[in-house]
Design goal:
Elements: E1 10-13, E2 33-38, E3 54-60, E4 70-71, E5 80-81, E6 94-105, E7 108-112, E8 120-127
Antiparallel strand pairs: 1-2, 1-8, 2-7, 3-6, 3-8, 4-5, 6-7
Length: 164
């Protein structure tokens, strides 16, 4: 297998220094504010970002040290294939969240609706553009039975990191 190397472009700062009661998705993090520090050498790439209301943060789940191909996701008690979940322990520990962009000041982004651990390495930023996704008749598999609980769900310790 080939190794793929990513470069950290910044750091995500949030109020979450432990997994206890941490939101499991942005929908459960309504109003949670934080900042994204983009390293100075990448500041020029933030030009024109302030015109977007929401952005994707793509990040390294740096505290995840192992993975399983079958997991019990937060929204279910049955074992599910990891690729049908958003579980953090994955073969490639990459996370993605859509957050509200409040402001861009030099290399600092103020954001809201964060479900990310404090100090998480940032890999990339992309604008959220709903019209680019053709999601008509979108099926959500096994999550359908739990979708009404997404906003209330918090971390319950089932994905405790070994590095914390």
């Amino acid at each position: 297998m080939n190794n793929i190397n990513f470069r950290q472009i910044g750091t995500i700062y949030t109020p979450f220094n432990s997994l206890e009661n941490m939101p499991i998705q942005p929908a459960a993090a309504d109003g949670v504010k934080g900042t994204v520090e983009v390293f100075p050498e990448f500041t020029e790439g933030l030009s024109d970002l302030e015109g977007f209301s929401h952005i994707y943060l793509i990040f390294h789940l740096h505290l995840s040290t192992d993975y399983r191909l079958k997991v019990k996701p937060f929204l279910d008690d049955e074992l599910r294939g990891v690729f049908s979940t958003r579980a953090p322990k994955r073969p490639n520990p990459i996370g993605i969240s859509v957050v509200k962009l409040i402001s861009v000041k030099n290399n600092i982004l103020e954001v809201e609706n964060l479900d990310i651990f404090n100090g998480t390495p940032l890999l990339d930023i992309k604008p959220a553009i709903p019209d680019m996704y053709n999601l008509e008749n979108c099926k959500i598999g096994w999550i359908e039975k739990s979708k009404n609980t997404i906003k209330e769900k918090k971390s319950d310790g089932r994905y405790l990191w070994t590095k914390v």
